[in-house]
From TrEMBL:
EC number, as in UniProt: 7.2.2.3
Recorded family membership: Belongs to the cation transport ATPase (P-type) (TC 3.A.3) family. Type IID subfamily.
A Gene Ontology molecular function term of the record: ATP binding
InterPro entries assigned to the protein according to its UniProt record, in alphabetical order: ATPase_P-typ_cation-transptr_C, ATPase_P-typ_cation-transptr_N, ATPase_P-typ_cyto_dom_N, ATPase_P-typ_P_site, ATPase_P-typ_TM_dom_sf, ATPase_P-typ_transduc_dom_A_sf, ATPase_P-type_domA, HAD-like_sf
UniProt name for this protein: P-type Na(+) transporter
Cofactor(s) for this UniProt protein: Mg(2+)
Enzyme class at the top of the EC tree: translocase
Species this chain originates from: Podospora appendiculata
Reactions accelerated catalytically: K(+)(in) + ATP + H2O = K(+)(out) + ADP + phosphate + H(+); Na(+)(in) + ATP + H2O = Na(+)(out) + ADP + phosphate + H(+)
PANTHER family documented for this protein: CALCIUM-TRANSPORTING ATPASE
GO biological process, one term: potassium ion transport
Amino acid sequence: MPRQYPGAASGSLHVSGQSNTPLTRPAHALTHQQVADELGADILAGLSRDEAARRVVRYGKNELGEAEGVRPLKIVVAQITNAMTLVLILAMGVSFGIRSWIEGGVVAAVILLNVVVGFFQEYSAEKTMDSLRSLSSPTASVVRGSEAMVIPSGEIVPGDLVEVKMGDTVPADIRLIEAKNFETDEALLTGESLPVRKAHHATFDDATGPGDRLNVAYSSSTVTKGRAKGIVFATGAYTEIGAIAKSLQHQDAKMRPVRRNAHGRAGPHRYLEAYTLTMGDAVGRFLRVNVGTPLQRKLSQLAIHLFFIAIVFALVVLGANGFDARQEVVIYAVATGLSMIPASLVVVLTITMSAGTRRMVERNVIVRNLRSLEALGAVTDICSDKTGTLTQGKMVARGAWVPGLGTYTVDLAREPFNPTLGAIRFAPKMPREIDFDAVNTTTSSTEKDNPQASPSGAVVPPADLLANSTSGLQSFLTVASLANLATVFQKDDKWHARGDPTEIAMQVFASRFDWNRLRFTTGAAAEWREVAEFPFDSDVKRMSVVMARTITTTATPGEQQFIFTKGAVERVLSVCTRYSAADDPDAEVDMTPAFHDTVLANMKTFAALGLRVLALASRVIDPETTVSEDTNRDTVEHDLTFRGLIGLYDPPRPESAAAVRECHEAGIVVHMLTGDHPETAKAIAMDVGILPAGMHMVRAELARAMVMTAGQFDALTDDEVDALPVLPLVIARCAPSTKVRMIEALHRRGRFCAMTGDGVNDSPSLRRADVGIAMGLSGSDVAKDASDIVLTDDNFASIVSAIEEGRRIFDNIQKFVLHVLAENLAQACTLLIGLAFKDASSLSVFPLAPVEIVWIIMATSGPPDMGLGFERAVPDIMRRAPRSLRTGIFTPEFCIDGVVYGLWIALLCLASFVLRVYAFGGNGNLGENCNDAYSPACDTVFRARATTFACLTWFALFLAWELIDMRRSFFAMHTGPSTRPLTQWMRDVWRNQFLFWAVVGGFVTLFPTLYIPVINHAVFKHTGISWEWGIVFVAAALFFGGVEGWKWAKRVYFRRRARREVGGGRAWEEMDVQEKVFATYFSAGEGESVDGNRRD
């Protein structure tokens, strides 16, 4: 039976291989003419433009599923139905209910401001994410109305005549009608890493699987060779890859399932349980305590808790006043309740996260959901691909061995396609006889004085190497050049290349000796012509071409045919019977077991250098043998002469080693999961620092666990994996299922991991990882859809940048939440303790009026909170261990800081109120009805209230500056040496100009509230002050002294605790990278080998 997937447009099943509108049979079971007839297509002229336009309307866009898009109404509702906004709405209702119009109006304005600002910020963030969601190939070549044109791939429709060539991405599922040497890379769909050669004339049974439909090219696959034409028969979600993407999409069920017994029955209590839980989920979604990011959920839950605390505080106020229902008592209760509500928190959090997504884009990272912004700061392990992520994804030939001659080594150059750059060294030795470990030290020191001195040989010009060889090098280069479909050419003084990266590297190597394929196969007098090609096959792991050479040097001109073969070393050796024992055409001898072992030993030497090793071979074909494309390859791929080995290197990105080191500094373990040979993977891992350079010092059992193949790892049970002393740092020959097992193993150890992936088969591991990272350049749309973030440059260093940015956002959120909650606690404590201040009618006089409280929460603290959200990363952010996402921002230090700062501010505010009322200029008279209106009898209370308000305003502004760093002194935030130590703090303050002007704005807006008539008396319930500013200045100095003293105590405590934890040694931040990451792997004594014996 053909595979079936949920239909794109309805709940019906879509049959794999069918069109958007079902054909009589799947497209691969019909001839291309039958497919064209059923779709109403023309295989010569294509669709007309009018018909194509009609089909776009009929079938829809050629996209993987329909995105929900940005829904403004949903955003507005979300802004209103969060717990904090609902508390404010309740306070507004109470204020209006007791006819306290001013207080109710102010709270209403705060609600409106929250909703409007939050809406625009979240709308902007959603639009940004929506616009960056798809990074698929944007254009396609089609024939419409007999004209070839390039159109957006989203406009492709069933029946379109599409042309694809090498390097193109197939825009939709197409039934091939013409193919010339056509191969596609279907690894994104089938997981097959090798290209698939297509046969357009063939037809297959209906039930044939996707991997065997050789007459179909699939959407999102890449053309690796040749060219083709085809009729589009499926677009969008009806393509093979679209159907898989559709099956991966899921909607969380909003109804809780009914639990049933073993017989499938459920009693009434089970239905009641399901309905109750469903109702609870609905209430949770309404209050947003079970939706959004983990931090957003925690803050919503915090708001619920604060709501109940506010009710308790309001009841305390009412109880302290004998539950008198007069307006001023109720408004005092409302004020106390409002003091516990962090009204600006939701807006500031939204703005900070929105700004974070935009900063991520600047660092080549696209955030697909806000949850990942928080998660990035907690990552403890990164599981990364090698090719294209840690490496450049560009093959370069680094070494070659020709039997009977020696070893050729190519120095790395800046331009991998330029054959004129990079010197060639020659040593008349086999690779296993060369000490490559000494090459780097020699070339970095001795070579400066003597460029010819190197264990890998002297630098020799390519022309001299050819002149010094009789036939061995020429035969080797002929195979490298002609068993090769890549094109390397120079245009406008720049070198270009097209084709498979492996073949490009071999072609560049041959071009160094002027042995380019174009030289021999193009032009009127071309020396060689292609007769047949036997493509690379995953079973035989070889590729061969049969070439005919024009002979003009004899009396009877004619042609002589040769077969040239390259491939996996073991597979090429299996069809070789001879080799050249010397640089002479007559020196060919029979292959022996000893020479066979020599070849394998030399291959292992190259692989240990991180090279991918291929073997080259050739022979002359008997004149009686007729060869064509239909010839069985086994009839010609035999009795070959082994010509040598070539080692290809995928260079690490220049920034990879530094990025891995930065991960280690940050306490993050890097794992490399690759499909390469174990020795190649190990060499690259050591090159970039994933494995320690001193692997010989690693204990034996750890060394075996640190580098494993997928076969070895998958053969272990979960218990055996958990018993490993360390999870592998390198897994070679890795399969998608191995990635999933690795994630599960990390989770069982309590680790928080990020996983990279690019193919459809990587989707399960991307979804299972805590942070799924898709590749923007090489990744499939399905992988991107399953991921949390997308790298636009496929670069490992961008992952590290994302983690640093995630930590910065996490830090800044913690800072402004601490600032808000400390202010809330200070206000609540001031009002609760202020209940003791009774007027002549025995009613409590509040030290802070309701509007003053809301003003400080929104106008005074709001902008500085945003400034803290924009604060740059602290200097040591990537030199500390990852934070625990389980505790989130609410760490013990955070909670204690909030209590200390809140109580200290409350104490100073109450002291300023008491001093003004009872000590300086006051006689302790609290008047009567001073909570409602100004009168001469209330002048003392209004002045004391203004003094307290001014103090609290200044404390809120100064605390924002103090929280730039939660431990460093405000006057010593600069980490390095400064030329102006006394004024460095001024420069630090000016660095974050948003925060600077927010604080200045807070100072400036204080004065209108104090001195403008009507506003001061009727709205804020205070009056202008004069000499009371002295109290404010003294309180500000005490505030700085207290906060700085607390920070100093914290620094002393954490330094001592860190030293105790390391047994008197150095703290984490002071450790070297080797100590942080690899110390536990090494032997106990320095200089000891694994067996514990002393080395000389």
